[in-house]
Amino acid sequence: MGDILNKIIVLIKECGELIVNADRNDIDIENKDGIGNYVTNYDTLIQEKIKAGLARIMPEAAFMGEEGDDNNISNKEYLFVVDPIDGTANFARDLKLSAISIGLLKNGKPFLGVCYLPYVNELYTAIKDEGAYLNGKKIHVSNKLLKDGIVYSGCAPYYEDLRSRSLSLLQSFASNAADFRRAGSAVIELCNIAAGRAEVYFELKIQPWDFCGASIIVLEAGGTLTTIDGNEIDYLHPSSVLASNGMEDYNKYIV
Question: Is the overall model pTM greater than 0.90, yes or no?
Fold first, then answer.
């Protein structure tokens, strides 16, 4: 699997160059379902490049991508789950807070993850039972309690019916934490949990491509990852996510 990982790293870095060097005058932005949910021509371009590359690297694996065009994923041992640009709204506004995520599920469970933050040249990798790494150095979640910690939060921006509860959850966590952040990219936020830069991340509903790649990185870094209710995540369908360093029972802050 190490050779496959190395080939994926080459591919994802090539795609990162497309993001960093994007022609700001040649970005076509379209609305998708939900408030503030966008797709650009670069999302489509990068997904096509990743899909073709992964088909050469591991042709036996199925493919699921944010921008559609999924293969038949039923009864497949291996499934790549890809987000070509996580943080598309950030990319469209040139905020430089975007990431590329490639996750590999084995029988529906996280097995390999590669997440690349091209603007800061941070490459996160993990293979099941082999640890998590940032630019080749092993990483681990923090040992801070929430009172000394940072909370990353989503706000269910695409789902109006969930926004009010999201803000209530943020109030509950933030009032017990040292501070809070929102990056606008689940991949960036989850990777920061894995790297020990923050203690908790939550979101009430995100798609598999938003969390599959980073999930194995969090887990291999010693963190925990469940639904907001503490249940096991279904990696093939939309889900709530509660990721943490596991230092305390964060469910007590759930409202």
Answer: yes
Query: What domains are there in the chain, each with its CATH number?
Result: 2-138 (3.30.540.10), 146-253 (3.40.190.80)
Give me 199's structure tokens.
């203690």
Are the C-beta atoms of residues 123 and 135 closer than 8 Å to each other? Answer: yes
Nearest Cα to Cα of residue 11 among 97, 123, 90, 107? 123
- Cα dihedral value 96, 19, 235, 125, nearest 10: -90
Chunk the chain into consecutive blocks of 10 residues (it has 255) and report each block's average pLDDT, rounded to whole numbers: 93 97 83 62 93 96 82 78 94 95 97 98 98 98 98 82 92 96 96 98 95 98 97 95 97 91
- Measured CA to CA, the distance from residue 185 to residue 211 in angstroms comes to 10
| DSSP 8-state code for residue 67 | T
CA distance 168 to 27: 35
Query: Residue 40 is encoded by which pair of tokens?
Result: 């650009």
